[in-house]
Amino acid sequence: xxxxxxxxxxxxxxxxxxxxxxxxxxxxxxxxxxxxxxxxxxxxxxxxxxxxxxxxxxxxxxxxxxxxxxxxxxxxxxxxxxxxxxxxxxxxxxxxxxxxxxxxxxxx
Length: 108
Known about the structure:
By secondary structure, the chain is mainly β. It has a single domain (3-104), classed as Sandwich (Immunoglobulin-like). It is 6% helix and 47% strand. Strand 3 and strand 4 form a beta hairpin.
């Protein structure tokens, strides 16, 4: 399976972060795709076409999501920059989110 997926979890409540707007951008900042996390906090296929090897950004609109939940937060957006070395593989980029910190890792 090839492609790119993401998953956002609210680390404070241990719940999926439903309704987070996410933008996929290339290295120059051009938006390639956009979506919103589902009821499980996921976007199963961020873009409908294969990505070529290169550098990309997943930009999460965390400020709007926190505002919608009446939570004061420090990060209005999270920009995760990553590389796709092999377009024949699937890449999963999760985000663990809280009002004053976040973390990410390369998932499977």
